[in-house]
Amino acid sequence: SRPVLPSVEPGYLQNLIPGDAPEQPEKWQDILVDIERVIMPGVTHWHSPHFHAYYPTANSYPGIVGEMLSAGIGCIGFSWITSPACTELEVAMMDWLGKLIQLPREFLNCSDGPGGGVIQGSASEATLVGLLAAKERSVRRIQKLHPDWDEGTIKAKLVAYSSDLYAVQKHMTGVPYCPQGSIISRFPLADVLHNIVTFTSSCFADQSNSSVEKAGLLGSMPMRLLPTDEKCRLRGATLEQAIKSDRERGLIPCYVVATLGTTGTCAFDCLEELGPICNKEELWLHVDAAYAGSAFICPEFRHLMAGVNYADSYNFNPHKWMLVNFDCSAMWVKDSQYLIEAFSVDRIYLKHQHQGRTPDYRHWQIPLGRRFRSIKLWMVLRLYGAEGLQQHIRRQVGLAREFEALLRGDSRFEIVTDISMGLVCFRLKGPNQLTKRLHDRLMARKNIYVIAATFQDKYIIRFVVCSRVTESRDIAFA
Ligand code: PLP
After folding, report:
1. CATH code for residues 72-172+197-380
2. CB under 6 Å to ligand 1: residues?
């Protein structure tokens, strides 16, 4: 019953609350009244059935109760002893989840080897954690080959790869394309910003998520954004060529992020082509399946993860499409030793007598502290069961198909990419300006929330089935 998008201006809230914290304690009742007066007018309703932007963020009663229990227990489980249940439930849940999507056994905690799973706060963190582990592995490998090279020299030569900003690149007419260049080095920054601002403002224009480029920035490793094919997929030959030319320039290819379900168009990189190259060339392959990964609990979608056996790390977000409230990003690695070696900083106060028998998850992540996130995963898996979760995914994919059918039945519209999962990318036939105007009007009316994107040289609208409570009538309304 509330508009999906709020109608407030920046700074609206400052006028509704005092400038200082209260001296005296206030009453619950007064504060809850203020939730309606101060907060609700400024909420974008991600769980409205009319929210069709970005990708879903999960929400369910089991997820909420799990959050409450986690907050109530309020432990900080950075080592086994700081809350054994926190670590042990996470170990068990990552195995439950890994088995549900039929991840190769080497990734599981219950395997005999050094593989295992951990819950990160976000896919962005998982990509950065993968990069840091890749860096550790490359440094150790190269030091064996060149014992006289110091760590700093090796790190300065490392380079990473992911898929490109295809649409922006297309608009840079007259600017020579250089396959080795990252977006920053490919074009003068001012040109890039000008194009983004003038044409693609508030659009998704990339294949791999922005967090992948950010991981390169944070991890001090140049991230080459490589061109994709016409279906927005990163192909093996492109990667092979980039590796070859970087090696010729004396660089050390180190890390590849392949995406299963890109943010712009939900495209799937060709893992079966990229994987063998990464393994042969000794590059760490990280798979980012943030959104689409939840669908792999359904056997009919699992062919889309073929090639996962080549990966060194794999990540998806149950907090996107699997009904576990934010934050719950599932990450598995084949060899946790690289994480532990990259992240281990010990102090006497962190030691305990059972070290080495179960994971001390502080070595698998960036922060020291960590929440009891697995409890909400446990709740959701038990209260829905695999069948309930599969039903949720299938229902949302079905609703996207309903939207597709409505578009196909209307000659004014065209669908521009393959329909993938719960995403439909469409536009009005004719000049880009028409679709842009349609999008501007939709944003002004606030009846539904969709975002724009670019695909090749086309201005498009991304329609995603997001809310758990979206029904056919909401699709018809949209
Ligand atoms: N990777 C992909 C493919 C995404 O679509 C997104 C967000 O939509 C992310 C990564 C970032 O996820 P997070 O917010 O968990 O870092």
Report:
1. 3.40.640.10
2. 54-55, 122-124, 209, 211, 259, 261-263, 288, 290-291, 317, 329
